[in-house]
Design a protein that fits this description.
GO terms for molecular function: hydrolase activity. This is MBL fold metallo-hydrolase. Keywords: Hydrolase. There is one protein chain. The protein has one domain: Metallo-beta-lactamase, Chain A (4-Layer Sandwich), CATH 3.60.15.10. It is 31% helix and 21% strand. The chain is built from twelve helices and 17 strands. The strands form four sheets. The protein has a seven-stranded mixed sheet. α10 links the parallel β12 and β13. It is globular and about 60 Å long. It starts with a strand and ends with a strand.
């Protein structure tokens, strides 16, 4: 069977996002399945639609996966629903799960309905595509690893499980009241972080002296840790899409992949989590997923794609993370301003040149 995966660039400045499409044939090559995983911003959503029309020669999308409700993943999907014919939507609907976690709420002033409304108001882009799907009779499937009722060929949802998701959603930012004070505090924090990024110190890193460390358990936000993790098995070619998930979510996904009877450390293609952030990945889960570090100059065994904005460096991708994937056999490719294309030899030739993989960095961020 043949398949092709496209990562489109998202963001004009330093803020990264995800806009991914893929298509793959049946075993006999007679028909193709077209999918979208996140749509990035409105502009990248438009580019995604044009890309599918031009390179996949269709206006029909068999499935859309909204991995989580953040704007840089969900906003552009409205364009996909406006311009293309979508057959199936996979997304979490936190406003529908209030009954499952309301007992954990300690604030007596909050009702179930007000909680539901907070989750709607806090995720307007995701709710917009959910409304569109419901109004237009498009089936909506809740992508949990312990259900997998979507009937999409070659796809298994390997994260999150229902229980894991509920443990994340109770800590979503939209659960808490947003006040003018908290908005101002968030703005001050962002400015401080931006200033810190400009003042980064650099340290040396060698192949056998890894500086990446396991992040703290709470380093990844609950919204990001709730991301849908998708696993495709194309005749033994194993593909993993991680979205913005963190180490806890990735560990649960590894458990699920093994429970499905698949070996880890045998992927053909892996999405680097959260645009290459060091807050989402560490040596322990990497060793389990893709293997332990290899000898220098060993051949690559898989491809790792990272969605990173053109001006995302040095935050996206973090050089420690790039090095960690490379020393474990990954050829690391970043979007950073242009569409990147991963494909099998039987797919149509677009005449594109081979992407230049990121190097191993001898100077990395000291933080």
């Amino acid at each position: 069977m043949e398949y092709e995966i496209d990562f489109l660039p998202v963001g004009e400045g330093s803020s990264s996002g995800d806009a991914i499409c893929l298509r793959y044939s049946d075993d006999d090559g007679a028909s193709w399945h077209v999918g979208v995983i996140d749509g990035g911003t409105q502009s990248s959503g438009e580019s995604l639609c044009e890309h599918i029309k031009t390179h996949y020669n269709t206006v029909v999308v068999d499935f859309v996966i909204c991995t989580h409700p953040d704007q840089d993943h969900a906003s552009g999907l409205s364009k996909v629903f406006d311009e293309l014919t979508v057959k199936k939507l996979l997304m979490h609907c936190p406003w529908d799960y209030v009954d499952h976690f309301f007992e954990s709420v300690t604030d007596g002033r909050i009702t179930k309905e007000s909680m539901r409304q907070r989750l709607i108001d806090g995720h307007p882009y995701a709710y917009k595509i959910y409304e569109y799907a419901i109004e237009n009779g498009i089936p909506v499937h809740h992508p949990f690893s312990d259900s997998n009722d979507h009937n999409i060929p070659y796809l298994d949802i390997v994260g999150p499980s229902g229980d894991f998701y509920l443990n994340q959603v109770i800590n979503f930012r939209s659960i808490n009241e947003v006040t003018e004070d908290s908005i101002e505090e968030s703005s001050l924090l962002k400015r401080a972080m931006d200033a810190a990024m400009k003042a980064i110190n650099w340290i040396s890193e060698e192949w056998d002296d890894e500086k990446l460390v396991d992040p703290a358990a709470d380093a990844t936000s609950s919204e990001n840790n709730s991301s849908v993790i998708s696993f495709f098995n194309f005749d033994g070619k194993k593909i993993l899409f991680t979205a913005d998930s963190g180490t806890l979510a990735l560990t649960e996904a590894a458990d699920k992949i093994e429970a499905l009877g698949h070996d880890l450390q045998s992927f053909s293609f892996v999405q680097v989590p959260h645009h290459g952030s060091k807050r989402n990945i560490g040596p322990t889960v990497l060793n389990r997923l893709v293997g332990t570090p290899k000898l220098i100059d060993s051949s690559t065994t898989f491809t790792a794609f990272v969605s990173a904005a053109k001006e995302g460096e040095p935050k996206h991708p973090n050089k420690r993370v790039v090095n960690a994937f490379k020393r474990r056999g990954g050829e690391v490719v970043a979007t950073q301003g242009s569409t990147k294309y991963y494909y099998t030899s039987g797919t149509p030739d677009r005449g594109w040149s081979k992407a230049e993989p990121l190097p191993f960095y001898t100077d990395v961020e000291d933080d």
